[in-house]
């Protein structure tokens, strides 16, 4: 069953139930108040019984009552009775005079009452003077006075007015009321269903269309969600899902692209030394290297190339393990200043050989403890310093390491006075295989994995790594490590 039909049925049921409950309570309220089931019928009759007489009725009634007591025979005087009729006519009431079992006078307005027996009975005590009475499905409100004529015949004067009790009225109006109710039911239902379905079904349809379009691969279908209700929330969630999906597909494509690039880079970096090695071996085999010295040179070149390849494969292996998060880390509490000083002392000899001065400058307390993996941190420092060494062209060669506290972190800056890096390249130097010198010149660059590995390691430590550099002046690589709490 469609939602539209469900809504229509639920609205109809609601309206019918309300209607029925309304009717039941209308009937039960008098019972609840009086505690008597007959009160339902009485409610309406009593209401009339309590109604006061109109002024002309009151006057005529006082007159005829007076006559009945003093001169009852005057009540047979038709000319006088006609005058009363006229007075009562103005308020649609009438006068009946009964003598014995006969109606001796009846106003025109009460002509329909022919049968004397249907009138209120004779009651000499005159207790029930005012009441209502039903005669042939007509309801009358009356006021009556009973007396005796001089000949001891029973006499009554009755002033009567026809009234429409609720039951009578509703019986005659029932088809109309029912028709109107039914019509308003259909109208209200139609309107309710229209507005509700407009606010629910329409957005559902647009959501369905959007889903279909997404199913066909169009992830650019924008769904409006400016509404604050549940539909708005649904649309918002849907749109969020769409953007996430779009992002993940984009990321997937990027991964795919970089995977292809990775394979091509690896192939290139492996192919070059292998081709060279092959060339040298062929040279030796073909006897190009006749002299012992040349053969030695060829062999040492082959060895260097093989070592480079070995290094590249090691780097690649380390990088991919870090990338896949398969590299185990053994974090320790390290005193970082001592650690760096030790590291500098270790590499000091190599640097001295290359005529490079290195300094450690501590700008924080004498002791700072961090959480780090000793071996991996060593790798980070040597990757950074190797770059500095490679790009050092000036006569005065210098590397400075600054250590300073930054809140919960320690910031380490490795600053060189080397060639510097052009601004356009700065955002990319931490990307794998990225090298500023794209010619892949062996003298200045390696595989382009050094800083990518450093970044992976520092990220795994919960720190950050970045670069500042000025072409011709020097480069600073910064990284942070979390202090031990
Ligand atoms: N201190 C520096 N001075 C000048 N250029 C630098 C410096 N550090 C990095 N670079 C530039 O950033 C590039 C990326 O460095 P990265 O260490 O990732 O790769 P690489 O040194 O070329 O290769 P690898 O480190 O794998 O042997 C380098 O090729 C170099 O051009
Ligand atoms: Mg490097």
Automatic annotation (TrEMBL):
Gene3D superfamilies: 1.10.287.130, 6.10.340.10, Histidine kinase-like ATPase, C-terminal domain (3.30.565.10). GO terms for cellular component: plasma membrane. GO terms for molecular function: ATP binding; phosphorelay sensor kinase activity. Keywords: ATP-binding, Cell membrane, Kinase, Membrane, Nucleotide-binding, Phosphoprotein, Transferase, Transmembrane, Transmembrane helix, Two-component regulatory system. Its EC number is 2.7.13.3. It catalyses: ATP + protein L-histidine = ADP + protein N-phospho-L-histidine. InterPro entries: HAMP_dom, HATPase_C_sf, HATPase_dom, His_kinase_dom, HisK_dim/P_dom, HisK_dim/P_sf, HssS/ArlS-like, Sig_transdc_His_kin-like_C. It is found in: Cell membrane. It holds the Pfam family HAMP. The chain crosses the membrane at residues 12-33, 173-196. The keyword Translocase does not apply. This is histidine kinase. It comes from Bacillus salipaludis.
